[in-house]
Amino acid sequence: MPVVDIPAGLRVVASRGQDWADWLDRLPRLTRELLDEWELRVDGTSAHGECALVVPVRTADGQSAVLKVQFPHWEAETEHLALRDWAGNGAVQLLRADPRRFALLLERLEPRDLTTVPVLDACELVGTAYQRLHVVAGPQYRTLSGELKRWLERFRKLPASAPVPHRYVEQAISLAEDFVSDPATDGRLIHTDLHYENMLAATREPWLVIDPKPLSGDPHYEVAPLIWNRWDELTGDLRFAVQQRFYTAIDAAGFDEERARRWVIIRQMLNVLWTLEDSDENLPQDWLTRNISIVKAIQE
């Protein structure tokens, strides 16, 4: 049986809870079984994401690929379906999948991502990619409106004393209520986490998208991660820098400005909501400030 290297950076996920620790215990054996069953040969050093082991491999016919084995969670349940729907058009090619074991065999891409590209050029590349990815979504995907209904209930439970400007909470609730009743909130296949590190250089095309967390949703929902990531690169006038990224992305995508802006506000406030729910007294103030700053800057 091949030796499977579990990176030290992935081992720390055991601290997230018993489910994570149990998965980590199973992971070496599960990966060896997949390598054996799919006739794969390890071809390099393993890497990892937030919740997945990625092993470079060679197939029986010598093709370079990667084996991705993920922690079981709902966002990963339909990743293989999204990759099949895209069929390599702007995204990494799916070669094989075992949804029961949350395992994917993918074409191998280069390790270089869009953080190596000037940020506005990267925003334009992502905005252009949207046009290829936002195909009609089938009924197999969860809907953005359904998720939004659940988020709305959590927003409403935030006390007025929460350490966040309550006017922005009320604004997010109002915008979310409008989107829940809007038929255009659902219907297109959206990635939901398309940021600079989820687009890699490739041979088949210059850049390809990876790691979808798919929903049936509104393409305008996609923009916000391009603003809150690479935050340390924003200099000078914050409002100008935020809006530069925003307009670069929506112009490349052909998005409606006001609709995209409303989704940015909701998504930044969702980041705030989840942070307040998940944190104890030691709140990450820099992160909260970042999200509130974007809400303010995007509508000045």
From TrEMBL:
<protein>
    <submittedName>
        <fullName>Aminoglycoside resistance protein</fullName>
    </submittedName>
</protein>
<dbReference type="InterPro" id="IPR006748">
    <property type="entry name" value="NH2Glyco/OHUrea_AB-resist_kin"/>
</dbReference>
<dbReference type="InterPro" id="IPR011009">
    <property type="entry name" value="Kinase-like_dom_sf"/>
</dbReference>
<dbReference type="Pfam" id="PF04655">
    <property type="entry name" value="APH_6_hur"/>
</dbReference>
<dbReference type="GO" id="GO:0016773">
    <property type="term" value="F:phosphotransferase activity, alcohol group as acceptor"/>
</dbReference>
<dbReference type="GO" id="GO:0019748">
    <property type="term" value="P:secondary metabolic process"/>
</dbReference>
